[in-house]
Amino acid sequence: MTPDELETLITARRSSLLIDASRSIDDAIIQRIISVAQWAPNHKRTWPLRIAVITGDSRSTLGNTIADAMAAQGDEAMKVTKTRGKFMRTPIVMVIAAAIGHSDNETEENKYAVAAGIQNMLLMAESFGLAALWGSPAKGANDAITTLCSMKLTDHVMGIVYLGWPTQSVGTPERPTSQITYLT
Ligand SMILES: Cc1cc2nc3c(=O)[nH]c(=O)nc-3n(C[C@H](O)[C@H](O)[C@H](O)COP(=O)(O)O)c2cc1C
Question: Does domain 26-164 match CATH 3.10.450.50?
Answer without folding.
Answer: no
